[in-house]
Design a protein that fits this description.
alpha/beta, Rossmann fold, 3 domains, 21 helices, 25 strands, globular, binds ligand ME8
């Protein structure tokens, strides 16, 4: 007999920046599925974590002037970091892995060695194109317009001694696995993988690097670090104790593994990952589900688009459950969805405030008003009840079918059909008229009871989506214990006949769209750069004492032993080349500046910098954004001649 066990994972996040609502989407979806499975009685292991190695992190840490470990610690465990965000969003993960955890590091070294010893990893030389932000190697044929096919950014030529994984050897079994149709979903992703990656020919994968050090060292060949995706993918196994002593539930959960991943990393999870598992002789995951992206203004989300995508801001304004609900209700899981504030507000108002919130508050208010909060036991049924009672018994099955297929938005639709049917039932039965007639008390009590039963079932099914609100609503409708279990979510007549309700706070207050949009707009604007106050006046005569002229850059090179200085030779129109040194190497590469038309102030005293003369100063525009200096050299149209004076 199959055990009722379920292992579900999110991708482990790159702590290279703060997370935005797109990342939250993936984790909330996984959390919803995990909670649903627990509700159904499964022993669930829900894993999330952080993917902390790689060149991108090393570079970001260097920019920030801290060690890579300090850099990731701040984003993962610091105030307002990833752990705080998951707590805020009520994420119920059972485990959290960091790929810098000792047990993971040791296990990855063992895994790498095992694949080396079984002949699937060999030493060679890598020559090819590398996308630093994505930590991915690409062949020429995979590039799109010469850029990374995943993120569209430029790639760099890289050549180094490296270890390779025999991915080509696994092309056939991986294709067969994909063709089963159950391993990778939604189905549309299967053709994408086969046509774009397998059919053009799978090449062996470069799985070690020597050009940077922030990674797990290959213990039998110092100088090499394990490719970050090998390190990252195996987190799913090491977090259960695979080849390490930290945990010991690998055998318990591994046969039941389900991965939820974003569409851009489906390739890693559905081709590279099963190939490596086959090489290790390990059982393959049951399912990889590739969800779509939340996009904004037609483009992928990023923090640079302003605070609108900051989950902290959104949760504070709308409440955690409203935000969780919006993400799961609005966008078909599997396709891209366009995020707008208007959509967020209207979803909350329509479904949560109007349909669900109203049903709870109207029903409990009527039971209090007509019966002092406790229903009498007498009943009087009517043919009008049949439809609603039928839905109370049948909604769970329909919901279950959709939840099992990870069609979370359709499962919610089924629950809302029940909620809407119950609201219609109030109009049909007109309790306010029944209340006027003493002889209809039993009928009125039946109507109230049916509404409470409909609410009970709807709320049980909504628990994985909006857990905190359901708990509050259960208390309001007097449902507890067995009544709020999965087993009773397709049964009518579970609440005690003389149930007592407790009208409470409004679960989902209606949001004033215009007012809220205005408030959010303030947040949407990226922080204004700090503008310095205007300096005291100078006379026009004094101003004209500055001799500022247009110059052409004849040559430019970095000054040896200086990180900052560039040495310029300029044509200032006088016929004699002029040398100026400028501390702008952080912002420009010398080769990008040769030939440019710039502005220099010429009548400054000669200055010695790193032993060389500087005769003037190049003019730039500077400002500070988010505590970081930005510099833009004043570059003019090339038609402006050298020597032209600024006045
Ligand atoms: O990919 N909408 O980490 P990551 C929906 N470390 N999902 C989005 C999104 C958006 N706008 N933006 C990001 C990595 N995501 C690797 C994973 S797993 C062994 C290693 C999703 O932090 C994205 O699709 O860049 C991915 O699934 C997840 O956030 C983590 O992205």
């Amino acid at each position: 007999m199959e055990e009722k066990r379920f292992y579900i994972t999110t991708p482990i996040y790159y702590p290279s920046d703060k997370l935005h609502i797109g990342h939250t989407y993936c984790t909330v979806a996984t959390d919803t599925i995990a909670r649903y499975k627990r509700l159904c009685g499964y022993d669930v292991m829900f894993l999330t974590g952080t993917d902390e190695h790689g060149q991108k992190i090393e570079e970001k840490a260097k920019e920030a002037g801290v060690s890579p470990q300090e850099f990731v610690d701040k984003i993962v465990t610091g105030k307002g970091g990833i752990l705080d965000l998951w707590k805020l969003m009520n994420i119920s993960n059972d485990r959290f892995i960091r790929t810098t955890d000792d047990y993971h590091v040791v296990a990855i070294q063992r895994i790498f060695k095992k694949m080396y010893e079984n002949g699937d990893i060999y030493k060679g030389a890598y020559k090819g194109m590398y996308c630093t932000p994505c930590e991915s190697f690409w062949t020429e044929s995979q590039l799109v317009n010469g850029c990374c096919p995943d993120c569209g950014r430029p790639v760099k030529y890289a050549e180094e001694e490296a270890y390779f994984f025999r991915l080509s050897k696994y092309a056939k079994p991986v294709q067969e696995l994909l063709e089963t149709g159950t391993f990778l979903q939604p189905a549309s992703r299967v053709n994408e993988m086969i046509n774009n990656f397998i059919k053009p020919g799978l090449e062996d994968l470069c799985v070690s690097r020597t050009s940077f050090s922030w990674g797990i060292p290959v213990d039998f060949d110092p100088g090499h670090v394990v490719y970050v995706w090998v390190d990252a993918l195996f987190n799913y196994a090491t977090a259960l104790g695979f080849l390490n002593d930290r945990y010991d539930d690998f055998d318990k959960y591994w046969p039941y593994v389900h991965h939820i991943v974003g569409k851009e990393i489906v390739r890693f999870h559905s081709i590279i990952w099963p190939a490596m598992l086959m090489s290790m002789g390990m059982k393959l995951p049951n399912k990889v589900y590739g969800h779509g992206w939340l996009i904004i203004d037609g483009g992928k989300m990023s923090k640079s688009k302003g605070n609108v995508v900051d989950p902290y801001v959104l949760a504070e304004k709308f409440g955690v459950d409203a935000l969780r609900f919006f993400l799961m209700r609005t966008f078909p899981f599997g396709s891209d969805g366009n995020f707008t504030n208007e959509l967020l507000i209207s979803t909350i108002n329509t479904d949560l405030a109007n349909d669900l919130g109203n049903l709870v508050s109207r029903t409990t208010a009527m039971v209090e008003k007509y019966f002092g909060g406790t229903l009498p036991a007498e009943r009087e049924t009517d043919a009008l009840d049949e439809d609603l009672l039928g839905m109370i018994k049948s909604t769970r099955d329909k919901y279950e079918e959709q939840m099992e297929a990870f069609q979370l938005h359709v499962a919610l639709e089924e629950v809302f059909k029940l909620i809407q049917r119950a609201n219609k039932y109030i109009d049909e039965t007109a309790p306010w008229i029944l209340a006027k007639d003493e002889s209809r008390k039993a009928r009125l009590a039946t109507v109230m009871y049916n509404l409470l039963e409909a609410l009970r079932v709807a709320l049980v099914l909504l628990t994985p989506f909006i857990p905190e609100s359901c708990e509050k609503a259960f208390a309001q409708i007097g449902a507890q214990g067995e009544a709020v279990t999965w087993d009773k979510a397709n049964v009518y007549g579970v609440l005690p006949a003389t149930v007592t309700v407790h009208k409470g706070e409004t679960l989902f207050p209606r949001i004033d769209m215009a007012k809220m949009l205005q408030e959010l707009e303030k947040h949407d604007k990226p922080a204004a750069p700090a503008v310095k106050p205007v300096l005291p006046d100078v006379s026009i005569d004094d101003f004209y004492k500055n001799d500022m002229r247009v110059c052409k850059i004849l040559s430019c090179e970095a000054v040896k032993k200086s990180e900052k200085l560039l040495k310029f030779t300029l044509d200032d129109g006088s016929g004699t080349p002029r040398q100026i040194l400028s501390g702008i190497h952080k912002f420009y590469e010398p080769e990008d500046l040769v030939g440019k038309t710039v502005v220099a102030i010429l009548n400054l005293p000669t200055r010695k910098m790193m032993g060389q003369d500087s005769n003037g100063m190049l003019l730039s525009a500077v400002r500070e954004v988010d505590g970081k200096e930005e510099l833009h050299l004043l570059i003019l149209d090339d038609s402006v001649p050298a020597g032209a004076q600024l006045c």
